[in-house]
Every structure is written in C-alpha cells, then in structure tokens.
C-alpha cells in the first residue's frame, strides 16, 4: 500500500490526501473522483529539476503531458520551470492555455499531421522531434511559410529493450518509433536535414519505454546515444547541442514495486547524469543540453481515485466482487495491460484487510476491472474505495464508454481542494451529436 507523504490515515480512521479527508472529498465533489496531491507533484518535479542542475548542469525536465494533460498541470509545471512534451494539437492547445510558454514545448508524434505541425510552428513550439522521413520537408515548408527557423531533434531508436509490458516498450528494433541507428536510417535522415533552409538541427531524442525500474537500461541507452553523437561528429562534422533521453521511470502501483520518495526518484536522474557525464568525458564530447521527459513518475503517485461501493457480489468459494461507480471508462489500464493496483476502503482504513476481492466497474463488459484478487477491508454499499497511483494515464486515457461521464479531478493543497477538471454533464456528452436531416 502506498501510504506516504500526505497520504495518511487520520484519527477517524479515514484516508487523507493533501491534508483533506477523502470521505469529505467524496461528500463535496461526488464519486468517481480523481484527486491529485499538489505537494507531491511539486516536490517530485523540483527534485528532478534540481538534480539535473546539480549533477549535470545545463538541462531541463519536460513533463510528458500524455500522462495527464490539463491546463492546471501545465500552469503548475511551467511555474516550476519545467518544459512539456506534447504529442498533438490538442496537447499544444491545452499547454498554451495553461500558460506553458511555447518555446518550452517539445513536440512528438510518429505521425504528426500537417495541421498539427502548422499549429506548432505558428505558435513557436521550441522543438519538433522528427520521426518520419518525409517530416523534414513538411516542417521546412511550413516554417518557410511563417518565415521562421524551426529547431528540430531527431528521434532515434537505440535498440535498448527495457523489461516492461510489450506495448509500453518503445525502443525495440521493430518499434514504430524512432530511426534505427543500426540500419543507417538515422544517418540518412540527419545528413538530409542540412539541405533545408528553415530547419535547425539541434540534437537527438530517445525514449526506451515506460515503467522501468532497471537503471542500467538508461545507462545503456546513453552509452549508445553518446557513441552516436561521437560518430556524427567524427564522420560528418555534425554537432549535437541537445540530448533528450525521454522518460519512463517506474512508479509504485503495488507492493511488488519499490516505494520511492521524491529523493529516490531523483536517483534516476542522478544515475543518468553520472553515466552521461562519464560517457561524454570518455568520448571527448561537448556537453549537450540535457532534457528528460518523465510523465508517470511526476504524477502517478500524486493521484488516487475515489469511488463509492455499490453491489457486493459474493460467488461463494469462487470470487467476491466489489462493484464501484467507475470502471474501464475512467481507468482502462487493467483492461489494456493487466496493470495492477492497490486500494483501501478509505472510510475503514484502519480495519483489517480480511477480504480477497475483485474491484469491478459499472461497464457492460466482463473485462471491466480495476484490480483482480486484491486484499481489502470488508465493505458494503456506500463505503469509499481509494485506488492508489492513478494520477498518470487514467484521466488522459478515459472514454465515454457506455455513456459514462468522465469524472472530475481535484487538486488538493494544504487541505483545500479545487477542480482542475470540472464535472461533465449529459449535455457535454451529446455536444457534438447531430441528427442528419434525412432522419427527421
Ligand atoms: N517521452 C516520450 C517520447 C514518450 O513516448 C513517453 C511515454 C514519455 C516521455 C513518458 O513516459 P513515462 O515517464 O510516463 O513512463 N499508456 C501507457 C503509457 C504509455 C507511455 C507512452 N510514452 C500506460 O498507461 O502505462
């Protein structure tokens, strides 16, 4: 169980987050409810950022906003001096509305659309990360149209396999992401960039996967990347000013995962800074500006989701279900990846974890589960369930399946909670519905 920092059990035996009683949060805001702890996010972000400055020097942390794209989060992170990784026009729009400066944005995407590149260039996005052979021509033409010089990075596939779920591995040789170093595709693309007048080649990017605990994988990736930087210099006289090593740092979902403090998380950056500095020295390479792109590790553990227990179904000797008022529409990660979660009955937090239960949602689908066979307290209709570590890739991957509304999200600071995502209504659900004339 993930009881740390502001997640604690108060005198009434209720779970507390950010100084707020979760039972009170449910009364005030209803359920299901995403709740994010301001203090945890801030502490972790500053811990990453300070470690880069202290241990490496020139660099930046870019929040991978696919984990949770919301104006308030861009506001918070930009206020702390972070950059942001964005992957669509929608994320760029949200980031700008949240006050993130355009030049702090790093735009990704394996199939960026022309309208998205147009929007990025016209708004002045800091870097566009090239991930397609025909992208340089498209970006160059758009930059020319706006009479701009666009800085670009090139996404490489370093061929390092981190041991995570197949779908969250992104640097296998057969991945759709990045240019292969091995095959020569990267050389070909990078050399071609210098023929475009409105592009500035700034450097390289890689991202080796997600939910990675094995630090050696990051060491391996930066060894490959620095080898390649040296090759670009020695073979073609090309200089790399920016090195973006992506994100992917693992977080605690269940007791099988290490439980890191913000300082421990900084250990990833520490390790990257140390191995990178050693590699740069050994290979006699000028220090590039270092960017890392954590998403999950910045906000997963800052978040919990609160639910109300509805039907309790005990199939004697087989399975016990606690049905909650959420499900795969607001957290599809079990359905997609069999991701594991831990939970607690938030209003009975001190009671014994005596039951083995499956937390199921309210969708019309057997696979609609949040956690299977986990230990929880005895619960009945009306009790509150808190699922831990749901700050990342829950809201951002939610849907309206079965006509369910996306739950609101609150951020809590010193016991005060306010919406960062307001509740939806049924009108929102049908806002873009249309009945063609021929049906009338
Ligand atoms: N940078 C790039 C280019 C990425 O593709 C990603 C994640 C990140 C940074 C951030 O990775 P993180 O630090 O959050 O691990 N939906 C999946 C996760 C997909 C991650 C995709 N890329 C999940 O729910 O686990």
Task: From the structure above, extract its key features.
eight-stranded parallel beta barrel, nine-stranded mixed sheet, 12 helices, 21 strands, single chain, alpha/beta, binds ligand LLP, globular, 440 residues, 30% helix, 2 domains, TIM Barrel, Lyase, Ornithine Decarboxylase, Chain A, domain 1
Please provide a written account of the structure.
The chain is of the alpha/beta class and 440 residues long. It has two domains: 7-30 and 302-429, Beta Barrel (Lyase, Ornithine Decarboxylase, Chain A, domain 1); 38-298, Alanine racemase (TIM Barrel). 30% of the residues lie in helices and 24% in strands. The chain is built from twelve helices and 21 strands. Strands 4, 14, 15, 16, 17, 18, 19, 20 and 21 form a nine-stranded mixed β-sheet that branches. An eight-stranded parallel β-barrel has the order 5-6-7-8-9-11-12-13, surrounded by six helices. A three-stranded antiparallel β-sheet has the order 1-2-3. It is globular, with a radius of gyration of 23 Å. Mean pLDDT is 95; it is low at 165-169. It binds ligand LLP.
């Amino acid at each position: 169980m993930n009881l740390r920092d502001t997640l604690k059990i108060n005198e009434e035996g209720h779970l507390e987050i950010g100084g707020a009683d979760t039972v009170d949060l449910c009364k005030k805001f209803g359920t299901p409810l995403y709740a994010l702890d301001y203090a945890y996010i801030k502490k972790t972000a500053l811990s990453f950022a300070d470690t880069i400055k202290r241990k490496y020097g020139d660099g930046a942390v870019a929040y991978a906003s696919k984990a949770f794209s919301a104006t308030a989060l861009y506001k918070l992170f930009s206020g702390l001096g972070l950059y942001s990784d964005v992957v669509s026009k929608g994320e760029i729009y949200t980031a700008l509305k949240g006050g993130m400066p355009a030049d702090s944005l790093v735009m990704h995407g394996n199939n960026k659309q022309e309208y998205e590149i147009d929007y990025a260039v016209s708004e002045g996005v800091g870097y566009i990360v090239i991930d397609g052979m025909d992208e340089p021509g498209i970006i160059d033409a758009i930059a020319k149209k706006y009479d701009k010089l666009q800085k670009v990075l090139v996404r490489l596939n370093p061929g390092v396999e981190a041991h995570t779920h197949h779908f969250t591995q992104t640097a296998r040789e057969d991945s759709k992401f990045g240019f292969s170093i091995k095959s020569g595709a990267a050389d070909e693309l990078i050399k071609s960039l210098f023929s475009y007048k409105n592009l500035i080649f700034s450097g390289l990017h890689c991202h080796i996967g997600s939910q990675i605990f094995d630090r050696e994988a990051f060491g391996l990736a930066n060894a490959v990347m620095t080898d390649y930087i040296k090759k670009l210099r020695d073979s073609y006289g090309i200089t790399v000013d920016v090195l973006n090593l992506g994100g992917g740092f693992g977080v605690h979902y269940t007791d099988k995962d290490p439980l890191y403090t913000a300082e421990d998380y900084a250990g990833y950056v520490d390790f990257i800074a140390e191995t990178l500095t050693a590699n740069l020295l050994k290979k006699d390479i000028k220090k590039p500006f270092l960017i890392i792109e954590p998403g999950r590790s910045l906000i997963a553990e800052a978040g919990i989701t609160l639910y109300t227990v509805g039907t309790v179904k005990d199939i004697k000797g087989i399975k016990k279900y606690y049905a909650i008022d959420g499900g795969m529409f607001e957290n599809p990660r079990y359905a997609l990846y069999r991701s594991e979660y831990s939970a607690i009955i938030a209003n009975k937090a001190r009671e014994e974890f005596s039951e083995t239960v499956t937390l199921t949602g309210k969708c019309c689908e057997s696979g609609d589960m949040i956690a299977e066979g986990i230990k929880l307290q005895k619960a009945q209709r009306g009790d509150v369930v808190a699922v831990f570590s749901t700050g990342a890739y829950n809201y951002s991957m939610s849907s309206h399946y079965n006509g369910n509304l996306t739950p609101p999200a609150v951020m809590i600071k010193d016991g005060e909670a306010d919406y960062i995502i307001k509740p939806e209504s049924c009108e929102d659900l049908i806002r873009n519905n249309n009945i063609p004339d021929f049906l009338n």
